[in-house]
């Protein structure tokens, strides 16, 4: 896989696929404000390196799911403004993806200049299942550039025009972010220092079961909290009340529990949980043993004994991967589990990786020192597919 350092970029047009899919909020007066610019910041090393070497940088990115047509609320205008502030230089904005505005903006770029095209998913061909349609959009994008750089780690698990098809049409390389992400996940996957512990939580239970399957072949300890743990507790025969439960996954989970024991993986489940009478910050809540959840109560966080147990199973680990919050951290009464585990991971002496969009958001929301982790991934889905051992099309294409 070539990197941007291998490319001779001076005076050349470089199309960069970035991931600017950031959370936005309405400010009340109709304007959209970025609530977490982490993904924009993560793209800066690549853009700055290309600019400083005299490249003409053309950025292509998406925001949300506009379903193939322009939606004003998903315009990249606020991204261009923020990017310009962070770079300290003007960013020319094209009001279309590959139309007359894009062509004019690209033609107007000088050496070291930066342009951003409008949300690429405003064009339905971007995510089309038809390779011919995707190829046509990719060809239009490729006509704006001499080189392609892939730096949107959050989309490398997708077969999409601006991710894979365009890489087949232009000389290409991995950007700094993609390279850093791939290096960390390859290390974890192929050569983790031991003990190697993985902490899983969050709410996307069925999405994450495939990952567990693959992880059981390599991890020493698997700690499960968040909404995920209730399907495990149910599989062990415990009552889980109104907690998040994927009934149709119980049999699969029973298989995973048996497989963990056969492979001598230490499976650590909550021993106590914070239960509430409703999914609300001001609902009545209390701490109960994890095998004593009563009907009508829902588990919204791991309990204090579990926080201590999990921390003790992380303390001497040399590799830790964490994906998925331990509780509903967005509501203060259920944030302590996530806080405790995040802090415990920052104290680990070894390689520590945070994957998952909500886990990274929790780190920032709870004010935990980001420098305490080796790596905070920008790609939730992509990092999970990596850990599942799958080939990511957007990475494979860079290796050709
Ligand atoms: P990530 O983006 O880090 O992969 P997920 O998207 O799987 O994580 O899940 C994040 C969500 O899980 C958060 O919004 C959090 O509120 C929710 N969550 C965590 N624990 C529970 C729980 N016990 N019950 C319901 N939702 C939970
Ligand atoms: Mg999420």
Automatic annotation (TrEMBL):
Pathway it works in: Carbohydrate degradation; glycolysis; pyruvate from D-glyceraldehyde 3-phosphate: step 2/5
Keyword presence, Thylakoid: no
GO BP annotation list: gluconeogenesis; glycolytic process
Keyword Repressor: no
Transmembrane annotation, as ranges: none
A Pfam family of this chain: PGK
Enzyme Commission number(s): 2.7.2.3
Keywords: ATP-binding, Cytoplasm, Glycolysis, Kinase, Nucleotide-binding, Transferase
GO CC entries: cytosol
EC class name: transferase
GO MF entries: ADP binding; ATP binding; phosphoglycerate kinase activity
Catalyzed reactions per annotation: (2R)-3-phosphoglycerate + ATP = (2R)-3-phospho-glyceroyl phosphate + ADP
CDD domains: Phosphoglycerate_kinase (cd00318)
Subunit structure, as described in the record: Monomer.
HAMAP family, A to Z: Phosphoglyc_kinase
Family per record: Belongs to the phosphoglycerate kinase family.
Protein name, as recorded: phosphoglycerate kinase
Natural source organism: freshwater metagenome
